[in-house]
Amino acid sequence: MRAGVYDSGVGGLTVVKSLLEYKLFDEIIYFGDTARVPYGVKDKNTIIRYSLEAVEFFKNFDIDIMITACNSVSAYAIDELKANAPFKVSGVIEPGVLALKNKIPNKDAKILILGTNATINSGKYERLLKEHGYKNIESLSPSLFVPIVEEGLFSGKVLKTVMEHYFDGVSQPDAIILGCTHFPLISRQIHKFFPKAILIHSGEAVVEFLEDEFGITETHLNTELKLFASENPDKLKEVANEWLKN
Amino acid sequence: MRAGVYDSGVGGLTVVKSLLEYKLFDEIIYFGDTARVPYGVKDKNTIIRYSLEAVEFFKNFDIDIMITACNSVSAYAIDELKANAPFKVSGVIEPGVLALKNKIPNKDAKILILGTNATINSGKYERLLKEHGYKNIESLSPSLFVPIVEEGLFSGKVLKTVMEHYFDGVSQPDAIILGCTHFPLISRQIHKFFPKAILIHSGEAVVEFLEDEFGITETHLNTELKLFASENPDKLKEVANEWLKN
Predict the structure, then answer these.
(1) Residue B241: CB partners within 8 Å, gap ≥ 6?
(2) Domains A2-91+204-243 and A94-202 in one fold
(3) What is the pLDDT of residue A246?
(4) Residues B70, B89, B98, B120: which is the catalytic one?
(5) Chain A residues in contact with chain B using a Cβ-Cβ cutoff of 8 Å
(6) FRET label pair with B204: which of A123, A182, A185, B44, CA 20 to 30 Å apart?
(7) What is the predicted pLDDT for the residue at B24?
(8) B246 pLDDT exceeds 80?
(9) Which residue of A has its CA nearest to B142?
């Protein structure tokens, strides 16, 4: 089985990491739109247009399913992708909410959503959580987290100060949705601030979703990973070597 | 006289501010390529392509001179702009170096260049400074400054911690080139770290350059400013209201 993983940049590799861990595919084609990253500050129509271009890209590879690791794409373009792609499509928002539901049955639990401006402004996580009965939801867009991760500052004083800036005054949540591909890379530091919270990671959520929704469970001995980027593919390969190592 | 000011995003408004202050034009057409910001992480060919598209845009306005406020454009595309534009063209790098030369005649002075990755990697400031005889040059790319300014954190603990991260260990310079349109907005905080340094600001440098190079000195009672953006023009107008007020 062959999957196409689509992201605005390098961040989607955190989802690839989970797919590799659970050995769900024998081939993964990764496309990072690094020439036009970040999507999180772009508007809806632009994000839809870019996403449909990614469908065209994946048509070259005879994939079985396209997984959009990018939350901004999942927030704004998932319906258009499903309507236009000749293969199955999975986002990360619905998987994230379902994974949370499995872990936190109590509908009074406090849920904190962390995402980019585009994802938070779309209101998609919030709407879906409410449909599932959750009432106590807070949304936050810590815009500096992405550039800090891109700068490789996964811990230390800069990250700590920036977290204090965004998190001071936020009451302890029961669960946190890491609604951006970059956030799993600083999940341990987020957990230090909110030690009681369960963290929902898109990669693990997608693995569960692929099994429940599409019956994709088979495990393969090896997954071949092919990396493509709209700009600077060497940087993508470098980051993959760094992030995907065990 | 009519000027076109080109930038990758909203940052070029810091240059507009100087042009307004010195009343050099009766009309300024500003184009911010907000759909594709930031340029500072893109490669040379992409930056050249985008810049030539901006020339096409300004052809609609019968401008006398195009000023590229963006340092990344000035670093990579200035020759292509000059070769292809039917109007005069000014960047910010040559003006910055000439302004520094006027202020710091001593060639042994220590010069610190602050810029995006693209600007620093181009080596253009460094090369030009060396051509003018300066020997003691340090270059630094404090990548988090741009997103911090975009987040509106012009002072406070986050900015201070990030400055310590980049500046600790950097010896006191005699002059600092603010080689990115965003940096003038945090120049007071930069000055606190390096109190003896003279700061070179692209906007003021361009005003000097326009006079010396093109003889543009006339002052107009009013400058009409027209703002265009490739995405989210309302955001650009909001930022203009905030940054350009006195």
Answers:
(1) none
(2) yes
(3) 62
(4) B70
(5) 35-37, 41-43, 46, 143-144, 146-148, 150-151, 153, 157-158, 161-162, 164-165, 231-232
(6) B44
(7) 93
(8) no
(9) A151
Nearest 5°: CA angle at B195, between B189 and B200? Answer: 75
Residue-range domain boundaries for chain B: 2-91+204-243, 94-202
pLDDT in tens, B126-158: 999 999 999 999 999 999 999 999 899 999 999
* Site of tokens 């070179």: B200
**Look-up: residue for tokens 């975009």?**
B150
pLDDT value at position B62? 95
Task: Specify whether domain B94-202 bears CATH 3.30.1360.120.
Answer: no
Q: What is the strand order of the sheet B2-7 is part of? A: B88-90, B65-68, B2-7, B27-32, B224-229
pLDDT at A218 over 80: no
Q: Which residues contact B158 (CB under 8 A, 6 or more apart)?
A: A144, A161, A162, A165, B148
Tell me: ipTM over 0.90.
no
Is A207 in a helix, a strand, or coil? helix
We find that the CATH architecture of domain A2-91+204-243 is 3-Layer(aba) Sandwich (3.40)
The model's pTM is 0.90
